# Entry
Amino acid sequence: MIMVNENYAKLQASYLFSEISKRVAAYQSENPEKNLIRLGIGDVTEPLPPACIEALHLAVDEMAGRATFRGYGPEQGYDFLREAIALNDFQSRGAGIDASEIFVSDGAKCDTGNIQELFSQKLTVAVPDPVYPVYVDTNVMAGRTGKAVRGRYQKLVYLDCTEENNFVPTPPAVPVDLIYLCFPNNPTGATATRAELKSWVDYAKEHQSIILFDAAYESFIRDPELPRSIYEIEGARDVAIEFRSFSKVAGFTGTRCAYTVVPKSVMGYTRKGEAVALHAMWNRRHTTKFNGVSYPVQRAAEAVYSEAGKQQVKALNDLYLGNAGIVREAIGALGYAMTGGVNSPYIWVNTGRDSWKFFDRLLARAQVVTTPGGGFGRCGKNFIRISAFNSRANVEEAMGRIKRVLR
Ligand code: PLP
# Structure
């Protein structure tokens, strides 16, 4: 008899997106003539930047010639990409990250999910509420939580993100070991200032905690005062691991490329109190379980940092930010309080009532699909997330419909 990992039985059903699909499918089958606009999921709609396409084509041609063909590459990523990342995303912003501290991967979802493997079962884990569900579910699978009781897992420390704290949690009064933070945030769209991030870095230093910082949406930051990386905060190199992705930056959701930064100065400890570099541990894990991102995709990611690539990526992100502005304008005109949509592609709207009821109303009356916030955590119960990832025409049409329905 094979015993299974019973922690999986603690996982709550992925109620959110399956329930949305069910309701959307039911509506569509009863109303086949209606044209739905989807502002629910966080997938991009616009094609890859031309610089990336050109680099992909060139790399594919290289794969066709014996002299230029490439087989297995370095598991951590090719130097050309790691160096471009270190220079453009960190060193140019005063963050002292070296190329050897970058681990290229096929997604921030896998990396944010896998990172917890490096740590003991006994750690206390803090997660924001609302939360990107991967942080929670992977710790449940690993057995770091108790059962879910009324939507919250026992043993996890939830960091409430509410209107009162501008959706940026302050460090808890109790000591916690691992802290997941995400800015710009999914789902709230909130951003954190330097002072706010510094308070977390100071907390982590004081309590010997580690911050797992998800910056998958950093490319949407336009305010020059806002940090794009946690390593722009002094001392963060000793206490933080950062996750980045080309998914939203450059439309790589289907192409797959991301990276994780593990500075050599971040330490964990053995039971005897000996320091262990997490860089060495992640390197061991990565090289054992991963065989690298394909060469053409890494060339396409490198092209994001070319002069043409930078301009195209900015234009791409500006298109979505423009959409976010249109959403904010429409929702604001209707009198709803919201956050996000500035320096971020998500708008988090306080509907003042149960978010599923609001979702149903928008679906039935405006034929617009949003995401009910309750699926991201208890603090999201009365909120919906509207995503700016769609064409300009669809966003304008959706907001016109919503204004007509809710006015
Ligand atoms: N982190 C956050 C906060 C996200 O919202 C997403 C995707 O939606 C990811 C990570 C996953 O990114 P990737 O496509 O690189 O796996």
Q: What stands out?
A: The pocket of pyridoxal-5'-phosphate is lined by residues 42, 107-109, 112, 132, 182, 186, 214, 216, 245, 247, 253, 258 (CB under 6 Å). The chain is about 35% helix and 15% strand.
